Fold each of these.
Amino acid sequence: MPRYRQGKSAGPDEFKLSSNENPYPPLPSVIAAIESELEINRYPDGSASELTAKLADFTGLSPDHIAVGPGSITILQQLLAAVAGPGDEVIYPWRSFEGYPTVVTLSGATAIAVPLLDTFEHDLEAMAHAVTERTKAIFLCTPNNPTGNVLTTEQVEWFLALVPSDILVVIDEAYIDFVRDPAAVDGLTLLEDHPNLVSARTFSKAHGLAGLRVGYALGNPEIIDVVKAAGLPMSVPNLAQRAAVASLDAIDDVRERVDHLVSVRNRVIAGLVDQGWQVPPTHANFVWLPLGAASEAAGEIFARHGIVARVFADSGVRVGIGEDESVEPLLNAASEVVTSLTVDLG
């Protein structure tokens, strides 16, 4: 079975850019909400009623269109538990989120990994051709982790028109808050016309609540009801629910922080381009360096500069967007990679 590898931890003089985390702690109002929710001798609200109501206000959907779970990867697992099993197939792009092979294997289904295009984008045509009578679900990842590319609304609508309506299509939008491309898809806007579509989202990235594990699904109430039934009861602690509610209450401050991280991202990309890199256009809080066989050697160079990156052997290096102070050592490391290794800059 494929094992999910967590990004390496960082030492006191290093920047942890290996897990696409928000480098900033939760907002003061969120910390206050956490501190007020210390009645941990009681079971949590199994229906996450307050958070679901808040998400309904935030998305414009009714509460029966929303399911809350312990992180978006668990939402994906619950979806597959409901629709797929031995003898079935699940299609996803590759390389993409490393959790996909794990949740597919746990469901008992067969993984159909469709390689990305040379531009590191989804090969939607090949994914559509991969559909068989055994296909039960398809994952789309936008922005794609680890390459950062987005799918456009036009692309997704074209793809959905090709896929039979009885196949579940999950659009994984963990990094949607960092997207600034007006043509990029927003799964929320497509749900009404496509009842087989589900959007999976998380509080881990933009909201900086990765350690509390809160994710949610948006979709057709019939599917959402099954998602809830497939999950373990009371799996999201009240503390996590309260923090997520407080973070939505402070959404303007959250967006201000995200805007700053996007500006840091733009500085990193500009610096890499000045060095000669031709990196894929990223719309997430990370950048992808397609280094192929030089990936592990490049990862060691980044580590010497205090940058803990995520190395995918024989494929590339994904570097998260972190604190302002991380930009200079990141770019210094990238420059040394260029000068000391034989690499194709893109």
Note: The chain has two domains: 15-24+252-340, 28-249.
Amino acid sequence: MIRAVVFDMYETLITHYHGKSPLYFSSQMAEDAGVLLEKFQSVWRGKEQERTVGKLSLEDTLREILAHNTSCSEDEVTAKVAKIAKKRIATAECCFENLHPEIIPMLEELKERGIFIGLISNCFSEEAEVIRRSILAPYFDVMCLSYELGVCKPQQEIYRICADKLGMKAEECLYVGDGGSSELEAARQFGMRTAQAAWYLNDRDDWPLRKKDGFETLYSPADVLNMK
């Protein structure tokens, strides 16, 4: 019997790829930084793991990129870092303004049924900040954010931490995610029941993730409520 539902965040509860949500990724940041995209990405992507597990903040990473690729003064670097960080945070906030219309009703219904709700999200410093004060935060009994914990999916440790904090055995938890970062495979290996969230994936022709064989597929957030 499912006593807790543990969600992924990005492309599961929220999405970057909504028509009303602006994108602000490496190409846009490189332009604002005044750095060639290739040089920006060599550091940005190279430091992704460190940014994910809390070893580097957004600001730390931007300063490193600017220090090696521009002749900006310290004041100019500070101004550029602040500008880019502000845009990244604003973009992250927009994702919570364009939710699938069934997300909040589904979370409310889980609460009404006495089902515990957990979150496991790989995220960077600016994303952790936004998640903590988002419209969805009050629904989570437990939030396990990689930036804060120092571990990330698909490491088994982050699933164990979440289950322990919820006070649940692995088999009492349903894990729901779009399938990135091998999260479904890792959750199943840990012992959780798993289901792929496809409601945002269905809206995108260019998204590399598709239906995963061997996993239950949920085509709308309301489908979570039918899992037993």
Note: The mean pLDDT is 94.
